């Protein structure tokens, strides 16, 4: 077992002056310059690094000391350990050979915005706590709402003045789902005259079986009875989107059984297959029961800044909330999930806190937005700066070009898959995700095909030259090829396809 270093010259690394100055301006400049050099080198070399690391669980603890140091050390020592121990254990989401999950995009403007926000380290829970942070977030959300052609009712500020709606930047889609579920829950309880939460066992919520698993987790956190969380089966007949007729049938049966339809989650671009639930038709069904409708457009919402994809949000004017995550596909680093609500008061009624130590004239005037009242916690990061920096630096035209380029590369890959009779595209491609697999051929059964596809994925990922993930669609093991890493170019997609073809040939021939 290691021992704690008790060297009395604990601050020797900070020079002759032994006073601790963690924000010494010269140190800030020196450390950040070295960090920037590291980032530059990383982006220059990431393409050549194995996308998936070949490390075993617990590797880092074995390489770095297991007890915290007492003595200080030069910053260069920490940077050396980052290079030698941390980088080799990273899954490189920034790699242009990363095709798993959904992209985690980034940009120079976003990194700069995040760096500046981190340096300022503001905690903007109320407008007064940091007016610029609050107003920057509100402005950035209103800008993005305009790029998405959202109705004015979702905006904080409109041409006519302050709107009834509003937005907030949260960490993840999970948070957006949770806060809207809580608001819908409270509204439904008031509607049925429940005393407190006594009537919560009557409330029912709905989503397609392709909806992200985080929705069902958020429902449990919001207190809904698991028996009343309805996962509605989908199939190839609707391209795995939610069937409004099936939804209506289930909701009618629930009402007959004494339940209260409370919330429907419609997804635009599901994780498994990029399925799109029909927003307008779902909103029509929800209106019959006064149920809250939320649109989860975490991934595909970014595409809707392009006119050719905006139709996927048709009907948004009749929903209660919508969220999307620029940290997935709109060049803004984690974490950045944007939530808009049509009636901000429905959110703040459930989430508002007003302790004496936070009271101030600006809040009391009703003229400002206190973003703490639109989220779970009170403290919050200055996320709005990096999102504003991205839009201000690149403009709508460049962001649209980025989306269209990724979609074009995904279509190229899809065309290659369709042209090879050993493969099949399992579901129609909507955006920049292609779901494909080796299809059964000759004496190969569906079970054999599943094994072959699993082996294909494992072999590809072991090479370090590409990283793909999988899903299950219609009971089949399916590979997901997600285009969109910020450094990706057509040559990376073509190289991955060549590797897929070569590896498939080896599997079919029985080669190890």
Automatic annotation (TrEMBL):
The modification N6-(pyridoxal phosphate)lysine is found at residue 328. Belongs to the group II decarboxylase family. Keywords: Decarboxylase, Lyase, Pyridoxal phosphate. Its cofactor is pyridoxal 5'-phosphate. The keyword Membrane does not apply. GO terms for biological process: phenol-containing compound biosynthetic process; primary amino compound biosynthetic process. It comes from Urochloa decumbens. This is Aromatic-L-amino-acid decarboxylase. The keyword Lyase applies. One of its GO terms (molecular function) is carboxy-lyase activity.
């Amino acid at each position: 077992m290691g021992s704690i270093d008790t060297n009395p010259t604990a601050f020797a690394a900070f020079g002759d002056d032994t006073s601790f100055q963690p924000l010494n301006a010269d140190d800030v400049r020196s450390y950040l310059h070295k960090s920037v050099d590291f980032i530059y080198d990383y982006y220059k070399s990431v393409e050549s690094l194995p996308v998936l690391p070949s490390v075993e669980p617990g590797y880092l603890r074995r390489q770095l000391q297991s007890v915290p140091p007492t003595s200080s050390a030069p910053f260069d020592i920490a940077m050396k350990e980052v290079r030698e121990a941390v980088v080799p254990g990273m899954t490189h989401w920034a790699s242009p050979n990363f095709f798993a999950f959904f992209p985690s995009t980034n940009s120079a403007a976003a990194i700069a915005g995040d760096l500046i926000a981190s340096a300022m380290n503001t905690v903007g829970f109320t407008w007064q706590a940091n007016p610029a942070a609050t107003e920057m977030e509100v402005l950035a959300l209103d800008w993005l709402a305009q790029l998405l052609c959202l109705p004015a009712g979702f905006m904080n500020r409109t041409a006519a003045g302050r709107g009834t709606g509003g937005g907030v930047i949260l960490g993840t889609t999970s948070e957006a789902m949770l806060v809207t579920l809580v608001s819908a829950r409270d509204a439904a309880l008031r509607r049925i005259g429940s005393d407190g939460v006594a009537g919560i066992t009557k409330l029912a919520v709905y989503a397609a079986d392709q909806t992200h698993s985080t929705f069902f987790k958020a429902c449990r956190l919001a207190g809904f009875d698991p028996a009343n969380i309805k996962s509605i089966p989908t199939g190839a007949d609707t391209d795995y989107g939610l069937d409004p007729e099936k939804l209506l049938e289930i909701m009618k049966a629930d009402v007959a059984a004494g339940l209260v339809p409370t919330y429907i989650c419609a997804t635009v671009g599901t994780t498994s297959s990029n399925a799109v639930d029909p927003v307008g038709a779902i909103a029509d069904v929800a209106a019959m029961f006064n149920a809250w409708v939320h649109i989860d457009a975490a991934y595909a919402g970014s595409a809707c800044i392009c006119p050719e994809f905006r139709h996927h949000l048709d009907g948004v004017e009749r929903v209660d909330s919508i969220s999307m995550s620029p940290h997935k596909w709109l060049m803004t680093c984690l974490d950045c999930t944007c939530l808009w609500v049509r009636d901000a008061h429905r959110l703040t009624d459930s989430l508002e806190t007003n302790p004496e130590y936070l009271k101030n004239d600006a809040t009391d005037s009703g003229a400002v937005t206190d973003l703490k009242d639109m989220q779970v916690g009170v403290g919050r990061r200055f996320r709005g700066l990096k999102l504003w920096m991205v839009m201000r630096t690149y403009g709508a035209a460049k962001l649209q070009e980025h989306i269209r380029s990724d979609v074009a590369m995904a279509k190229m890959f899809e065309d290659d898959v369709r042209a090879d009779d050993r493969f099949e595209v399992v579901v129609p491609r909507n955006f920049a995700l292609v779901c494909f697999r080796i299809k059964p051929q000759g004496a190969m059964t569906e079970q054999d095909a599943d094994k072959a596809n699993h082996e294909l994925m494992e072999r590809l990922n072991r090479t370090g030259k590409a990283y793909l993930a999988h899903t299950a669609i219609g009971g089949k093991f399916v590979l997901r090829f997600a285009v969109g890493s910020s450094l990706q170019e057509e040559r990376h997609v073509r190289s991955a396809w060549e590797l897929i073809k070569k590896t498939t040939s080896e599997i079919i021939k029985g080669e190890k």
